[in-house]
Design a protein that fits this description.
alpha/beta; 206 residues; 5 strands; globular
């Protein structure tokens, strides 16, 4: 049953407290990630920057909110993240955007291979596959990472705590939480940080 807006208005302090706790929990997880995973974030940014220096490309995949992050991150690379700094585009492709391929392959062959197929078709040795998974256990992402490593791509995982992908990727950035919403919130901050460092490293952005 839907809650009427008047009922929400009648308990403003309760809802203020609810949102306050939610935001502080998100901030706490982001702070712990900064303390525990800063080196791995910088390593991931370095790998991506070196990929672009070699004139290779970055492929990005994920499901649900991570699919949205894949598109967001690819857009930041191809466009720019710093609005006051102009630079050339950087070649990044979100493997989540071609609905004709995704629906055809999922219908004909099953959803578990939708990223793997694109990696083996579009990926080249020296490219980077950036896999985003809040659980670290998404089967189609696991298959994509395995295919990428077999094809000579470098693999990076942006992950929640405890998943299989942590040990499968070449470079893992792990958020120390299994709360999906808070992992997603923290991963977006990490993704922006990686983009900013890549811009600095390649173009001297201020």
């Amino acid at each position: 049953m839907l809650v009427e807006s008047e009922e929400l208005d009648a308990q403003p302090e309760e809802w203020r407290s609810f949102i306050h706790r939610h935001m502080w929990k998100s901030a706490e997880i982001t702070q712990r990630t900064a303390e525990m995973s800063l080196d791995s974030i910088l390593r991931a940014a370095s790998v991506v920057a070196n990929c672009f220096r070699r004139a290779n490309k970055v492929l990005i995949c994920g499901n649900g909110g991570s699919a949205a992050d894949a598109q967001h991150l690819a857009a930041e690379f191809v466009n720019r993240i710093s609005s006051d700094f102009d630079r050339p585009g950087l070649p990044a492709i979100a493997l989540t955007t071609d609905t004709s391929f995704l629906t055809a392959y999922a219908n004909d062959c099953g959803y578990e291979g939708v990223f793997e197929r694109q990696v083996t078709t579009l990926g080249n040795r020296g490219d980077v596959l950036l896999a985003i998974s809040t659980s670290g256990n998404s089967r189609n992402v696991l298959q994509a990472v395995s295919a990428a490593r077999d094809s000579g791509l470098i693999t990076i995982g942006l992950l929640g705590d405890g998943g299989l992908l942590t040990d499968l990727v070449d470079h893992a950035v792990v958020v120390p939480s299994r709360d999906t919403q808070h992992v997603q919130e923290c991963l977006l901050t990490i993704e922006h940080g990686i983009c900013l460092v890549v811009e600095q490293a390649l173009f001297g952005a201020k």
